[in-house]
Amino acid sequence: QVQLVESGGGLVQSGGSLRLSCVASKRIVSLYAMSWYRQAPGKQRELVAGLRTSGTTNYADSVKGRFTISRDYSKNTVYVRMNNLKPEDTAVYYCNVKEKGFAAPYWGQGTQVTVSS
Questions:
Q1: Widest CA span of the chain, in angstroms?
Q2: How much is the CA Rg of the chain, to the nearest whole Å?
Q3: 37, 17, 16: which is closest to 91 by C-alpha?
Q4: What is the CB-side half-sphere exposure of residue 15 using CA atoms within 13 A?
């Protein structure tokens, strides 16, 4: 059983920056990828940024060039640095961790990011 805890959300002015952190309660030996998703009210959850253990990254087109995902395996942590935030970035941001194989992924409880205009 792995618990994920997100932090770093809050209220920020348009154009500002935030850094979100996601800490896993233990090392995930069969780690495949760490990702950030977000969900705004009335909308489906979407992938924001993903990072495979190989180092491969992918980003939603809407955040490409503004968000950067990174990891620190020694701390069982994944980060996303969000620059030049826009009101449309307002959402609950969730950490997601996938293991190799087809096991259900782990999800955090989410952290609210609100960007004011």
A1: 42
A2: 14
A3: 37
A4: 1
DSSP structure class, residue 117: -
End-to-end CA distance of the chain: 40
d(CA 22, CA 7): 6
* Residues linked to residue 7 through DSSP beta bridges, in sequence order: 21
Rounded CA-CA distance 95/77 in Å is 10
87 phi and psi angles, rounded to 5 deg: -55, -35
Res 73: pLDDT: 84
Strand, helix or coil for residue 113: strand
pLDDT in tens, 1-25: 899 999 999 999 999 999 999 999 9
